[in-house]
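Example (one chain per record):
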Amino acid sequence: MNEIFGEDATIKLLHVAEVNDGGGKEKLPPHVDNSARKKIDWKADILVIEKERVEVLKEMVSGQAQKNAIFDRLTSAIEKIAEK
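Predicted structure:
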């Protein structure tokens, strides 16, 4: 430690940045017990997860529709070539 700090082990902070977390935290009314708080938090987490899942499923459906359209055009082109 002496090699790093020398004889004086105190560290001087030249600049300390303030952290802004966006304001106060939303608090439940004091009459709600801890089990109710956990239940509310759990339901909110599930809701967020379900919304993300729906978005992913929409993207998958869109991708599958595009893939089907490409294969339809490819099949049509192959059939036209085969007719010649």
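Caption: The mean pLDDT is 76.
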